[in-house]
């Protein structure tokens, strides 16, 4: 295993990014396709499904009601390291992305504030430091989606490796999504901002 592949798995090796929600409620995986009323649908392992026709041409289903419509040349899909991650991507040796889909949402009491606190708390747990030591670069509303959405940018050190995260959190009535990009380094650079915007803009929701 080369060093960059090791870095990729190291970054996924903890619950650094995940909200403290029961794992049984986490990411849905596509397990098959069939026809419903003559239309092609994608089946998920939690018993739900969605019409493939609802996607734009060239989009790939990541979970119920969510598709990735970005360039596969820019964001190369990789195998998620863990069932909590619906999809993971690599841009280059220093920049990665992932999508987490959880089947709990606003009607279950999940709010943006809850998720904001959760991701910072989990970053602290992963870095083995108090939450107060996690650097939060900023919290910004994100206006693209019709659901409550904000982006939390924070930094943490994992086994001495400095990583900076941009985590766009979307709270739907019965679903919570995290659209995360992360980069090696201690600063939220202009390149990271542009890559995060590109990644989030590649996501389509029903």
Characteristics of this structure?
alpha+beta; single chain; 18% helix; 206 residues
Describe the structure.
The chain is α+β, with helices and mostly antiparallel strands. 18% of the residues lie in helices and 40% in strands. It contains three helices and 13 strands, in the order H-E-E-E-E-E-E-E-E-H-E-E-E-E-H-E. It has a seven-stranded antiparallel beta sheet, sandwiched between helices. Strand 10 and strand 11 form a beta hairpin. The termini are far apart. The N terminus is likely disordered.
Percentage of residues in DSSP E strands:
35-45%
Q: What pattern of helices and strands is seen along the backbone?
A: HEEEEEEEEHEEEEHE
Spatial sequence of strands, sheet with the most strands: 6-7-8-12-11-10-9
User: What is the first-to-last residue Cα distance?
Assistant: 38 Å
**Mean model confidence by pLDDT:** 80
Number of helices: 3
Biggest sheet record: 7 strands, antiparallel
Task: Tell me the helix content.
Answer: 10-25%
Poorly predicted ranges:
1-27
Question: Strand pairing plus helix content: what structural class?
Answer: alpha+beta
What is the 3D form?
globular
How many whole angstroms does the radius of gyration measure? 16 Å
Number of strands: 13
Compile the SSE list and pairings:
Blueprint: H1 3-11, E1 30-36, E2 39-44, E3 49-51, E4 60-63, E5 66-68, E6 76-78, E7 87-92, E8 95-102, H2 112-127, E9 135-141, E10 149-158, E11 161-172, E12 175-184, H3 190-201, E13 203-205
Antiparallel strand pairs: 1-2, 2-3, 4-5, 5-13, 6-7, 7-8, 8-12, 9-10, 10-11, 11-12
What would a concise description of this structure say?
This protein is an alpha+beta fold.
């Amino acid at each position: 295993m080369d060093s960059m592949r090791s870095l990729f798995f190291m970054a996924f090796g903890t619950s650094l990014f995940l909200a403290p929600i029961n794992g049984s409620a986490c990411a849905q995986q596509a397990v098959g396709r069939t026809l419903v009323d003559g239309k092609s649908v994608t089946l998920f392992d939690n018993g739900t499904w969605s019409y493939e026709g609802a996607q734009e041409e060239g989009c790939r289903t990541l979970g119920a009601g969510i598709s990735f419509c970005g360039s596969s040349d820019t964001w190369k899909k990789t195998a998620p390291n863990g069932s909590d991650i619906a999809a993971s991507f690599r841009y280059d040796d220093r920049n990665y992305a992932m999508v987490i889909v959880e089947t709990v949402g606003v009607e279950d009491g999940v709010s943006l504030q809850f998720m904001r606190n959760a991701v910072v708390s989990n970053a602290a747990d992963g870095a083995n430091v108090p939450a107060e030591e996690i650097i939060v670069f900023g919290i910004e509303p994100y206006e693209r989606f019709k659901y409550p959405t904000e982006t939390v940018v924070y930094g943490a050190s994992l086994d001495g490796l400095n990583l900076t995260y941009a985590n766009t959190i979307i709270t739907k009535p019965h679903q919570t999504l995290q659209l995360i990009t992360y980069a090696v380094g201690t600063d939220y650079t202009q390149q990271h901002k542009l890559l995060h915007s590109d990644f989030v803009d590649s996501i389509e929701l029903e």
